[in-house]
Sequence to fold (255 residues):
Amino acid sequence: MVQENPYRLDDRTIIVTGASRGIGAEVARVAARQGANLVLVARSKDGLAAVAGQLDTAVRVIDGDVADTETAERALDAAEDIGTRVWGLVNNAGINPYYRQTIDTPLHEWEDVLRVNLLGAAVFARAVGRVMVDGGGGRIVNLGSIAGLTGLPNIGPYNASKAALDAMTRTLCVELGPSGVLINSVAPGTIRSEMIDGLLNANPALAERLVAKAPIGRIGYLHEAAEPIVFLLTDAASFITGHVLVVDGGRLAAG
Fold:
């Protein structure tokens, strides 16, 4: 079913991981304004409930580990309970809790980051992608980062996980395109969120450096990351697949 307004998501269900805060929560809010029904997934049950309470649409919440196949199956059961077509998946769940040189990073820290950022996205892409193939199409948006496109120091596992997500995007694009499933990545730069605000408040010099690197002279806002993500879920983006959309205020272009 093609929407009369290609930017609307009426009668479609979108599954969003990492939806209890930050970009994931904002994606839920933007998608709900465009008419989507939502299944929100994260570890924080209270955080999910708070976001769900802000949405004027059909919404279900699933608390669990995104790298657990049972969590993905519960999310699909919740989508079936809503009753509208499973149309979109936003693989937003991610962590970046470690800060040290790659050669000094213990393997268990690599495992922690890759389990959530890469394996979690693969688990959901596999489960939801199968439903989309059977249903005749859909949209998957993976949340990358400019960290996956450059060599930011001291966050090697995070950089690697985001680069791998972009590679998965391209592979899924080729594999699922004939079934009508379009897959893209969005690579944000520095976006104001609970995690980033805490970091910047603790380190004002870092905030100044990040602003100085951005040609537009500021850090991004949540809606500036969420709205391009939701755009890629709509019929307005029906000829875009296998693409990495950089949303960074020009930071990569500036070198």
Summary: The two ends are 43 Å apart (CA to CA). Residues 107-135 form the longest helix (29 residues). The first strand starts at residue 12 and ends at 17.
